[in-house]
Specification:
Blueprint lengths: L1 H20 L7 E7 L8 E2 L8 E3 L6 E5 L5 E8 L9 E4 L2 E7 L8 E10 L3 E8 L2 H27 L1
Parallel strand pairs: 1-6, 2-4, 3-5
Antiparallel strand pairs: 1-9, 4-9, 5-8, 7-8
Helix pairs in contact: 1-2
């Protein structure tokens, strides 16, 4: 019986980890991608720098930004604020070949990234998404609580017998 319980716990753990890890190669990750057919209705920006980055404050949805400047950007600064823990986030893009954490962040309590080795042309819409959402990590942790409680109860019953 213990063996079957152990196997079930491993299967549940593996399935939970797969669901959380499925969205990107390094989680959580800031992903900057081109978005077709730009129509700037909100979140338009014409300048970008380390001291004036794009701010991502909502991690639960896509964040659509449109670059309305007159010349191409060869680097893009994006800041997550507020963050759970410094150094927890990674970055990737289909526009820029490289990205890395940039210090210091423009906002205290945030983490800034610099995307470079690429070009963001004027009138280009980008989709900035954080995946998986930090809430998914919390749900995974909460999901383990019943497993540990069940295991402890089963272990205690087996010891008493």
């Amino acid at each position: 019986m213990r063996f079957v319980t152990g196997i079930l716990a491993v299967v549940v753990l593996a399935l939970s980890a797969t669901a959380v890890k499925a969205q990107s190669p390094s989680d959580p990750t800031v992903d900057i991608d081109k978005f077709p057919d730009p129509v700037c209705t909100e979140n338009c920006f014409s300048t970008n720098s380390a001291t004036d980055p794009l701010i991502i404050a909502n991690f639960d949805t896509d964040n659509i930004f449109t670059y309305t400047g007159t010349s191409p950007l060869t680097e893009l600064f994006v800041e997550l604020s507020p963050i759970l823990e410094p150094g927890l986030y990674g970055c990737m893009s289909d526009i820029f070949a490289a990205c890395e954490a940039y210090d210091p962040a423009a906002i205290s309590g945030g983490q800034e990234f610099e995307f470079y080795d690429g070009t963001l042309d004027p009138n280009t819409e980008i989709d900035a998404v954080v995946s998986p959402e930090p809430g998914a990590l919390l749900l995974l942790a909460i999901g383990f609580a019943p497993l540990f409680a069940f295991r402890k109860r089963t272990w205690g019953a087996a010891q008493a017998a």
